[in-house]
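Why run this: before we spend reagent on co-expression, it is cheaper to look at a predicted model of the complex and decide which construct boundaries make sense. The entries below are exactly what would go into the expression plan.
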Amino acid sequence: MTEMKMVFRWFGHDDPVPLKYINQIPGMYGIVSALYDIPVGDVWPLDKITKLKQTIEEAGLHLEIIESVPVHEDIKLGHPTRDQYISNYQDTIRNLAKAGIKVICYNFMPVFDWTRTQLDKQLPDGSSTLVFYNEQLEKLSQDKNNLALPGWDTSYQKQELQALLEAYQDKTDEDLWASLSYFLKAIIPVAEECDIKMAIHPDDPPWSLFDLPRIIKNEQSLDRLISIVDSDSNGLTLCSGSLGCDANNDVIKLVKKFGQKNKIHFAHMRNVKILDNRDFEESAHYSATGSLDMSGILKAYADSNFSGYMRPDHGRMIWGEQGRAGYGLYDRALGASYLLGIWEAFTKE
Ligand SMILES: [Mn+2]
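The model came back. Tokens follow.
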């Protein structure tokens, strides 16, 4: 029986968390990372992928999974230029396979691939976390010409962002589905050939923002996604925190259903505290601190003999740690240990 592999997200040499510290977390199998200096849409060069893998292996960890290979906006918009970008994406898949990569996480969210309204909300215990408050969102989006979202302020030039938002103005959810379908029909056969599993990340949060179309948000959309191309290579990153901040999504049910079908290649484990009015706060992994039944979710994975990759998703900032919001060492390490402890209890022969 192959076993679940626990991995930790690492952002490369700029990441304040050293690889050797990650390797000291008990039970840590590997790293999930990406090449962060390649412009979106370009082919990832094999030598750079190999170098990243070497760096990680020298620290005693594996690199078998990538998060993410970003999808160029022209592909999502269905522009004629998409064919070149898709061809580049196919070459990136081939290069990643040559370096021994097994799973590629990606998403299909227009413009912003995650949205929070504050990244350092102080909790009563002195830790800080990422939150989504609709009252803050309204303030942030009052002036659509000056949209400045926490975490996105340096990703786009103002005019570039404006042009992009305009390009999506008349795009519907069905248009985005058509673009996703076109993309999958082109890349899944290549992924199959290379024995790579594609794993789409759900929208975060799983509803539309700023009138942008958003389509990967619930059970029906996951059903529709896997029906576009029937292949083991066309699968999911099941993010408990992204799907779980919509109380209508039953994460345990989703894991059971798509786990049985062998469609979940990557499990993101994160707890979230759902508040009124669709507000939410990211909480510690421990079930009682949020709204999700984390051991129930792990039980569903264990029952489906899950043998893919799992990572503790975001963590709070605790013990005075400074760093990348959501991606400190301490709280994610606690999360990994908590998850591995429950996993052992469910799976030990
Ligand atoms: Mn996630």
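The chain has one domain: 5-347. Residues 201, 239, 241-242, 268, 313 surround manganese (II) ion (CB under 6 Å). Bring this page to Monday's planning discussion.
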